[in-house]
Amino acid sequence: MKVVILAGGKGTRISEESRIKPKPMVEIAGRPILWHIMKIYSAFGYHDFIICCGYKGHMIKEFFTHYYRYQTDSTFNIREGTAISHNSKVEPWRVTLADTGYDTPTAGRILRVRDYIDGDTFMLTYGDGVADVDLVKLLEFHQSHGRAVTITTTQPEGRFGAIKLDEAGIISGFKEKARKDQSWINAGYMVCSRDIFEFLGDGGEMLEAGPFEGLARQGQMAAYRHPGFWSPMDNIHDRDYLQKLWEDGKAPWKVWENAGR
Fold this sequence. Notes:
- With 261 residues, this protein is an alpha/beta fold.
- It has seven helices and 16 strands.
- The model has no long low-confidence stretch (mean pLDDT 90).
């Protein structure tokens, strides 16, 4: 089954990094967050990726062009111009890098890779969020209800406390915002049938606008509730938060370690 990753946006809220690289190439622990996302899928046996490139997409292509060499011990015979590879550590990935346009909305990016998607079902996610979603249970849930699209939903951790105010504006206390008090949001990690293409129109809208609204109106969208970890990387604070989790050995999305990959 193919895994489509939307990696073409500009990432304006993390402009400190995205001025020089596409957002999916912003690094956590010395690896692009895109790599972390692919490792999550690979841990569950999904190795066939379609990356929807756009803004500074050449940097994503350069990363994969040289990835094999970077992950492999090599012996170079400079005089003869030959190279021998040893002890390759590369993952069993097949990666299609598609130029889906500089300003193309997300619906249009999916349309532009339609010809690369075979089979009746494919995975879809954003190139800027990590999670410990059980992809086996996610797929089983999708197959059980027969709708066109399943999105993973979660109640994000409350990183900010709520202030208790009276009518006069006097603070009477503070309260940590619990997850159960948060709204359910779209965390990505979606499963789609090919029926989704009927809702994308000409690709001129963001996926979360017209297409998802149309799917919802026709009862063709279901939510898989994920109670575990999820975090976006929308800004520098998010990046630093994920980096700290990794450095402390508390990165919940590192599911490939348990899978032996």
